[in-house]
C-alpha cells in the first residue's frame, strides 16, 4: 500500500501537508503555504521528485569503531 498525503490547516493560519507511510507513521511534514492551492502544488512537486531525488550525505565521516561506541548494536540473548 502506498503512503498518503494529509492536507491540513496549521493553527487555522496556513496550510501544510503530511506524508504518511503505509504503516501510519509520519514520514515528512511540509513547510507552511499561504493557500490551499499552493499546498496542493507542493504535494504534486513531492510526488514528482520523491522517486528520483538524489541523496546528499551531509553527515560527518565516522569510523566504524566510533559509530559502535556511540550507538552499539544490541547483543543477542543466549538461551
UniProtKB/TrEMBL annotation:
It holds the Pfam family DUF1508. Residues 15-55 form the DUF1508 domain. InterPro entries: DUF1508, YegP-like_sf. This is DUF1508 domain-containing protein. It comes from Arthrobacter cheniae. The lineage of its organism: Bacteria, Bacillati, Actinomycetota, Actinomycetes, Micrococcales.
Amino acid at each position: 500500500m502506498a503512503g498518503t498525503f494529509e492536507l491540513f490547516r496549521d493553527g487555522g493560519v496556513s496550510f501544510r501537508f503530511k506524508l504518511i507511510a503505509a504503516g501510519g507513521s509520519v514520514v515528512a511534514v511540509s513547510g507552511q503555504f499561504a493557500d490551499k492551492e499552493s499546498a496542493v502544488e507542493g504535494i504534486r512537486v513531492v510526488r514528482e521528485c520523491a522517486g528520483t531525488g538524489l541523496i546528499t550525505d551531509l553527515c560527518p565521516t565516522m569510523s566504524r569503531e566510533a559509530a559502535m561506541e556511540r550507538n552499539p548494536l544490541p547483543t543477542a540473548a543466549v538461551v
